[in-house]
Amino acid sequence: MTNTQPLLVSADFNHVDNWVFDLDNTLYPAACDLFAEIDQRMTAFVQKELNLPHDEARIIQKDYYKRYGTTLRGMMIEHKLDPAIFMSYVHDIDHSPLDAAPDLKAQLSALPGKKYIYTNGSTCHAEKVTKYMGIDHLFQDIICIAKSEFLPKHEDGAFERFIELTSVDPTKSTMFEDLPRNLIPAHQLGFKTVLVTSDKDWSHEPEGVRPAHANDIKPDHVHHTTDDLPRFLEEIVKDIAPNT
C-alpha cells in the first residue's frame, strides 16, 4: 500500500533549495534488509567488546539505542569506546541486497537545488551504498555521524551542526527520514519534513524509537509521509517544473 499523500507543492516545496536525505531505510528501501546486517553486526560487536552472551548483548544494544540515539553513542559514553573501531566493524557488510535505482536517480537528478545525505552512519558506508545504487554523484556532501561530532540527529545541537557544515537555510530545506523522532528538531528549525515509511515489521526495535510503519499515525511534526520515495519525488518534480 502506497501512502504518498496528495501534494500541495506550491505551498510546500516551491521554496525548497536543499534536499536532505537520511541514508538507511530512506534512500534505499527497508525491504531489502540491508540495515538488518548492520543491526546484527552491532549486536555482535557489543557481545565481543563486553564479553556477554548474545541475548544480553542484544538487550544492551537496544537499550543504548533508545537512551542515546545510537548504539555507538551508548558505547562511547558508557565504555569510552573508540568510535572508529565500531564504525569499521558494523559497516563491513554485504551490499549485494542493494539494486541500482534508476527511478530514484532520475528524480534526484531532476530536483532543483542541492542534495545532501545526513546520516548517523559513516561516510564510507554512505559512499558504498550510493555507489551500488548509482546515485553517488548526485550529492553535494555527506554529513556523517563523525562530522556531527557523534551527536545523533535527535539530540540538541545535531541539526545545528548540520546547518553549520552545509550553510543551508532550514526554511528552504526538506528533510527525508524514516525515524519520526529525528524529524522533531528538523521541524523545530524550520525544515519541511517527510517521513519515509515501510511495511516492514519493526516490533523488535524499542517502542518509541522504531522506524515508521505505513500504518502509523502521522505525528504533528511531520508534514508528509510516503512509502515510495521515487514516486513522491516524481510528484514534486512534476509540480515544481512549471514554476521554475
TrEMBL record:
<feature type="region of interest" description="Disordered">
    <location>
        <begin position="202"/>
        <end position="224"/>
    </location>
</feature>
<dbReference type="Pfam" id="PF00702">
    <property type="entry name" value="Hydrolase"/>
</dbReference>
<dbReference type="InterPro" id="IPR010237">
    <property type="entry name" value="Pyr-5-nucltdase"/>
</dbReference>
<protein>
    <submittedName>
        <fullName>Pyrimidine 5'-nucleotidase</fullName>
    </submittedName>
</protein>
<dbReference type="InterPro" id="IPR036412">
    <property type="entry name" value="HAD-like_sf"/>
</dbReference>
<dbReference type="InterPro" id="IPR023214">
    <property type="entry name" value="HAD_sf"/>
</dbReference>
